[in-house]
Amino acid sequence: MPILGIISSGISTNIPVGIAVETDTTTADPNFSDVVLLYDMDGADAATNITDASNSAHTETFNGSAELDTAEKKFGTASLLLDGIDSYLTLPDSADWQLAASAGDSWTMECHFRSNVLPVSSANECLFGQHDTTSPANDRSFLNLIQHDGGSDVDLSFSRYDDGTSGSQETITHETAISVSTWYHYAVCSDGTTVRLFRDGVESATDLSASIMFNSTDVFTIGAFRVSSTEIGFFDGWIDNLRITKGTARYIANFTPPTEAFETNSVTPVKV
After folding, report:
1. Tens of pLDDT, residues 132-174
2. Is the separation of the CB atoms in 261 and 76 below 8 Å?
3. Stated pTM of the model
């Protein structure tokens, strides 16, 4: 909440010494300099563009029927609506997506999502990832999926590939079933020793030892993944507040999920 203070000598500011100011004490993100992608998904209804609020300022391409939806969102004014048929976003390859050049690298990937229709019969729906099998071959890095387990449940999973081949795939599954019409917070995180998967702040029963992840040269996708350079695994629902942090393990134990949109800067503003 805002508080009043007095600017004194020795503080670097353009405000004259002795002037009373109002300081916004809302907690800013101390790790914002490590954020390489931040989509709050805000904008006008049916818009087909969003802004990456990270310092990387990535640009995206909306494909199919992908658009913003102001009628349904977790935070802010809108969320990304994907129809599960042909809707997805692509971003060009970037060094930002190489999250684990070495096993000791820390990173965090997270978003909020709400499913409209869940996958069936061992099928998958992709939240986001960087994965392809051709052009070039064996170009897999990581996938964040909603997957039908072949039985009666639909779970969340994270897969990584250390050499880009299917044989190098290692997966964590959060074996707590998800439902439609419910907002969830998804997060996967490495502290350089352990990779952990969380749903609504609760860690999965299993984890992975930290490892490198292959440096894919393919596009980064949201709402689908690629096989033979063709998109499959279309997500049917809404995605909000997608953030990737490279260099910081934000979650290493159970936590309270975010209750507001992610901070878009690391500086607490000063109001005159």
Report:
1. 987 677 899 999 999 998 877 899 999 999 999 989 999 999 9
2. yes
3. 0.88
Identify the pLDDT of residue 155. 94
What are the pLDDT digits (tens) for 194-210?
999 999 999 999 999 99
**176: DSSP letter:** S
Peptide bond into 119 cis (omega under 30): no
Strand 2-6, strand 107-115: pairing: unpaired
> What pLDDT, on a 0 to 100 scale, did the predictor assign at position 139?
92
**Residue scoring higher pLDDT (264 or 85):** 85
- Which CATH architecture describes the domain 30-265? Sandwich (2.60)
Specify whether the CB–CB gap between 183 and 74 falls below 8 A: yes
Contact 212, 170 (CB under 8 A): no
How far is residue 160 from each of residues 14, 40, 71, 241, measured CA to CA in Å?
48, 25, 34, 22
Sorted by where each begins, the domain ranges of the chain are 30-265
Transcribe 182-242 into DSSP letters: -EEEEEEEE-SSEEEEEETTEE-S--EE--------S-EEES-EEETTEEE---EEEEEEE
Q: Is beta strand 220-222 parallel, antiparallel or unpaired with respect to 124-130?
A: antiparallel
> Which are the contacts of 86, defined by CB distance < 8 A and separation ≥ 6?
63, 64, 65, 231, 234
Structural tokens at position 135: 């052009």
